[in-house]
From TrEMBL:
Residues 30-50 have a biased composition (Low complexity). Belongs to the bacterial solute-binding protein 1 family. The lineage of its organism: Bacteria, Bacillati, Bacillota, Bacilli, Bacillales. Its main location: membrane. InterPro entries: Maltose/Cyclodextrin-bd, SBP. It comes from the Bacteria. It is found in: Cell membrane. It comes from Paenibacillus soyae. It holds the Pfam family SBP_bac_8. This is Maltodextrin-binding protein. Residues 30-57 are annotated as: Disordered.
Length: 437
C-alpha cells in the first residue's frame, strides 16, 4: 500500500519534465541559540519571522541532510547555494524517505541522525510521538501562506506545524489516447465505454486499478465518508461507515460486473502495467512511478483527474514530503534556516526542474513550467481534490480491516454496510487497545 512512497514520483517525473551532534536537551527550547530575533522555540501558535527575516544560526554550524538517491542533484545544488549565502557546510547522506523515521528513532538520541530529514507525511505522527522533530515555529507563517492548504495540513500534527513542505504526490487516471481520446469525467461514462470495449477473452478492459488495495479504493469512501475526523487527527471520529461511505462502497461493488469481472487478487500492478503497455487496457488508475515504463513502451497517454463517483468529485489519497528538523540536532537554528531555504518557491521550482518533484508551493505550482506539462498538470489537478493520508499512529489500524471489507464486497458480494460496520468495529477495538497500553 505504500508502493507510491517506495517508488517515488520524483524519478518518474524526471523523465517527463526534463553531521548531527549531541543532544543538548532534546528540545528546541534547550537547544536554541537564536539571538535577538528568535521566537520561543516551541511556539505552537506560529512563527515570528518578519518578511525577509532569517533566524540566527549557531556559530560554527555544519549540517547533515538525509535524502533519497533521486533527490541528490537538488540537495547538492541547493546546499551549495546555502553554503555560499550563509557559510554553513551541508553534507548529504543517501537514505530513502520512507526509511528515515525508523533510522532517526535509533540514531537521533545517539547524536548520529541528520540535522534535516525528509519523509512522507503519514510518518509524522510516529515521529512526533517519539519526540524526533521540532515544530516549524520561526517560519510557520511563511510556510502556511505560501503552500497548499492540503500540504500544510498534512505536515501538521495535533494542530502544530512541523514540516517545511517541499513536494506533493497522488495517483490519477492514465488513459491511452489511441483507445480513448478523451478522459471520461464520470465513472458512469467508464461503465458505458466498457460495454463496447471490454473483451475479457482478449484481455481487453476499459479500466483497472488495484481493487483490493484501500490506498487506491479511498475515492469510493471519499464521496461523503472519511477515515478519521479533524483532518485525519481524531481517532475517535471514524467516518468509514457513514451514509456517504456506504453509498460509495455499494457503487464500488457494482463495478465488478460492469467494467472489471475479475477477483481482486488477480489485479496487480504488474498485470495492469502489462495490459496497458500492450495496448489492451484503455485506462489505469496509477501513480507517477509508472510514467517511465509507459513512456518507454511508446504509449501515447494522458493523465487526468479521477472520474467522479455518484455525482461527486473522487478524492484520492495524497502524500506530502517535507523537510523536518531533528530535535536532537546540535544546530537547530541552522537546520531551521536550511529547511526554510530549501523549501521556498524558488527552491521548489529548482527541484521540479532538476528532478520533476511537483511543488507544494501554490505560486510554484501555477508557474508555466509546471502548468505547461500535461502529465504533471493532471497530477496537480487531482492533488487539488485529494485527501492527505492521516498521519496519526492509529492509521496503522485501518489498512487490514478496511482492505478486507473491500475484498469481501468485491469478491463475495457482501453487503456494503455490513462489511464497513465490521471493519470500523475492528478499527475501534484496535485503537482502544492501543490507547489502553
Amino acid at each position: 500500500m505504500k508502493k507510491w512512497f517506495v517508488m517515488t514520483m520524483i524519478a518518474a517525473l524526471f523523465v517527463v519534465a526534463a553531521c548531527g551532534g549531541n543532544n543538548n536537551g532534546g528540545n528546541a527550547g534547550n537547544n536554541a541559540n537564536t539571538g535577538a530575533t528568535e521566537a520561543p522555540a516551541n511556539n505552537a501558535e506560529g512563527g515570528t519571522a518578519a518578511e525577509g527575516e532569517d533566524i540566527t544560526p549557531e556559530e560554527g554550524a555544519t549540517l547533515l541532510v538525509w535524502e533519497s538517491k533521486e533527490e541528490r542533484p537538488f540537495i547538492e545544488a541547493i546546499g551549495k547555494e546555502f553554503t555560499e549565502k550563509y557559510g554553513i557546510e551541508i553534507k548529504f547522506e543517501e537514505l530513502g524517505a520512507a526509511d528515515q523515521v525508523n533510522k532517526l528513532i535509533s540514531d537521533g538520541p545517539a547524536g548520529l541522525g541528520a540535522d534535516v530529514v525528509v519523509f512522507p507525511h503519514d510518518n509524522l505522527g510516529k515521529a512526533v510521538s517519539a519526540g524526533l522533530v521540532l515544530p516549524n515555529d520561526f517560519y510557520a507563517e511563511q510556510s502556511k501562506s505560501e503552500n497548499s492548504e492540503l500540504a500544510v495540513n498534512a505536515v501538521s500534527y495535533d494542530n502544530v506545524l512541523y514540516g517545511y513542505p517541499r513536494s506533493v504526490e497522488t495517483y490519477a487516471l492514465f488513459y491511452n489516447k489511441a483507445l480513448i481520446p478523451n478522459a471520461p469525467k464520470t465513472f458512469d461514462e467508464v461503465v458505458e465505454f466498457a460495454k463496447t470495449f471490454n473483451d475479457p477473452a482478449a484481455n481487453k478492459y476499459a479500466l483497472m486499478w488495484e481493487v483490493g488495495n484501500f490506498y487506491f479504493n479511498y475515492p469510493f469512501i471519499s464521496t461523503g465518508g472519511y477515515v478519521y475526523g479533524d483532518n485525519g487527527q481524531n481517532k475517535d471520529d471514524i467516518g468509514l461507515n457513514n451514509e456517504g461511505a456506504v453509498a460509495g462502497m455499494k457503487y464500488y461493488g457494482s463495478l465488478k460486473n460492469s467494467i472489471l469481472p475479475m477477483n481482486s487478487g488477480d489485479i496487480t500492478y504488474d498485470i495492469k502495467k502489462g495490459l496497458f503497455t500492450g495496448g489492451t487496457l484503455a485506462m489505469d488508475i496509477n501513480g507517477p512511478w509508472t510514467i517511465a515504463d509507459y513512456k518507454a513502451a511508446g504509449i501515447d497517454f494522458g493523465v487526468a483527474p479521477l472520474p467522479s463517483i455518484n455525482g461527486q468529485p473522487a478524492s484520492s489519497f495524497s502524500g506530502v514530503k517535507a523537510f523536518y528538523v531533528n530535535s536532537f540536532s546540535k544546530y537547530p537554528n541552522a537546520a531551521r534556516l536550511f529547511a526554510r531555504f530549501a523549501s521556498t518557491k524558488e527552491a521548489q521550482l529548482k527541484d521540479f526542474e532538476m528532478t520533476g518533484a511537483i511543488p507544494a508551493n501554490t505560486e510554484a505550482t501555477a508557474d508555466s513550467a509546471v502548468q505547461g506539462n500535461e502529465i504533471v498538470k493532471g497530477f496537480v489537478e487531482q492533488f487539488n481534490q485529494s485527501t492527505p493520508m492521516p498521519s496519526i499512529p492509529e492509521m496503522g489500524n485501518v489498512w487490514a480491516p478496511i482492505g478486507a471489507a473491500f475484498s469481501d464486497v468485491w469478491n463475495s458480494g457482501k453487503d456494503a454496510k455490513e462489511a464497513l460496520d465490521n471493519a470500523v468495529q475492528q478499527i475501534k477495538d484496535a485503537n482502544n487497545g492501543a490507547a489502553a497500553q
